[in-house]
Amino acid sequence: MQRWGLRTAAAAVTAVVAHLVLHYMVRTPIPSHMQNQAAVFVPELVNRETQSALLDLLKTKGVIPSNSADTNFYEVKHEHIGEAQPLEADGTCAHRYLMPNKNRTQCILPGRIDVARAFGLTGGIDGLKENLGTLFSRLQTFGIYIFDIDAQEHAIIRSLFDSKDFLDAAAQVCPSHKQHLDPFQFNFIVQIPGQAVATHVDGVYFWGASRFAFPQWLLAVMSFSGLFKDEFVDQVQVVGYVSDWALDPVRQNPSKFGEFVYWPNKDSTSDKRMPPLPRSGNAIDGSKSIHTTTVYRPEVEPPFIDKNKPSKLQHNATTDRWDLIVGNDLVASYATEDLRISIVYRARCFRTKTDVERFQAEAHDHSRMMDLDDVLNRLVERGQQLTSTPSPPLSDRLALAVWLLDTFMRYPYPSSSSTWFPFNYCGLFSAPNWLC
To answer: Record's superkingdom (predicted)?
Structure first.
């Protein structure tokens, strides 16, 4: 009886807290400069021939690293803001937020720590209640980043940028006075069953700051702060779905297949959704429209993917399957149709062709990049106007990074239709098994 009494009391307390949180906190405000952005659904983005060619290209690439290792595809001037710490003797990182850098020489904040922290705190759009090991295994999707879109072997990619569907969507998403396009990136994003693309904004570009200069989490902070609106570079991003799935199951239950969710209005209570129908797509400016997906096949718990070990999907040409390798261990194998495969291609929006050429000329010029300390000082000055929590000294860069994330990053909480409580209490504290 005493055991059930404690359970009842705990449930009652939790219900009261949940009511207060839902009433006062769940309406996460969306920054005004990130509201009312255009979104376009394209029901027939690619035909079957193009779908097949893209899947063949993916198999030709052979290896799809974890998206936490996206810097394997490019170099960054400032890999971190000064928070780096030595690796432990066993090659791992002691601090819960840090992970080995791409050369495995030190521990740094992952490029999208903003995304990981929010996902761990809330359980994502689905409001999952899980331990952090399981939750972060759901988060570690896989991707290939292609910047040489004009290379001969990428002709199928170039054709997507030249298509009428892309040009029509770009005309609606790019500001009316910025209709000169600068195509610059193509990605394959791949999820195994049980994974999700967590709530985020895409890699932000500014005049003088990009993923080639700063960690992406810092670029997101800069965007949310609103301090750098004059330097902000608008984009159009198209997401297409090329998984070889039957149409009817997705149409009947889109959330099971990773439904696209975005927030166009003033707060987090009014999300909108688009189904991931095979060969369809959608277009937004993902660098200023907050978006996510529901969990792909949420009934599946993915294998544990250790943040301290490199992970990848590797195509086995003999079996025509994708092997999940974590460290040096083969932990699972998937048929292509088991995977949620999306394509993401992006172009910047400029006023004139001259602006396009100038941006391209300056993008990798270190002398044209913003000064890191100046950016941090501006953010600290602005942040101190927004919060009563004092900023850490500039010398404590890890604490400063966390303060900046706490001060500026406000990703939406899951809605009351997804969960009765908008926080992942299983990850916040050692909740009993019966509660999780």
So the answer is: Eukaryota
Q: Tokens in use for 198? A: 């967590």
- What is the pLDDT, as a whole number, of residue 20? 44
Three-class DSSP category at 265: coil
Helices (H), 212-367: 216-225, 247-252, 353-362
Sign of CA dihedral 131, 417, 28, 389: negative
Query: 433 pLDDT band (50/70/90 cuts)?
Result: low
Tens digit of each residue's pLDDT (9 = 90 or more) over 45-89: 999 999 999 999 999 999 999 988 777 778 889 999 999 999 999
Q: What is the distance of C-alpha 191 from the center of its chain? A: 12
Give the separation between CA 361 and CA 346, rounded to whole angstroms.
18
Q: Which of 244, 188, 193 is nearest to 66 (CA)?
A: 188
Supply the pTM of this predicted model.
0.88
How far is 39 from 211, CA to CA, in rounded Å?
A: 24
DSSP state of 213: T
DSSP conformation class of 375: H
| Whether the Cβ atoms of residue 403 and residue 389 lie closer than 8 Å to each other | yes
Residue range 240-299, pLDDT digits in tens: 999 999 999 999 999 999 999 999 987 777 899 999 999 999 999 999 999 999 999 999
Longest dimension (CA), the chain: 76
Distance CA 90, CA 86 (A): 11
Domains and CATH numbers, the chain: 36-217+228-369 (2.60.120.620)
Residues 279/48, Cβ–Cβ less than 8 Å: yes
Tell me the torsion sign for CA atoms 80, 375, 236, 358.
negative
d(CA 180, CA 184): 13
- pLDDT tens digits, residue range 7-43? 444 444 455 455 445 444 556 788 999 999 999 999 9
Residue 236: pLDDT band with limits 50, 70, 90: very high
Q: Six-digit token pair at 205?
A: 């570009």
Q: Is residue 217 within 8 Å of 324, Cβ to Cβ?
A: no
Is 6's pLDDT higher than 80? no
Give me the residue label for tokens 């797509």.
281
Best CA proximity match to 206, nearest among 137, 273, 288: 288
* Residue 163 CB contacts under 8 Å (≥ 6 apart), including other chains: none
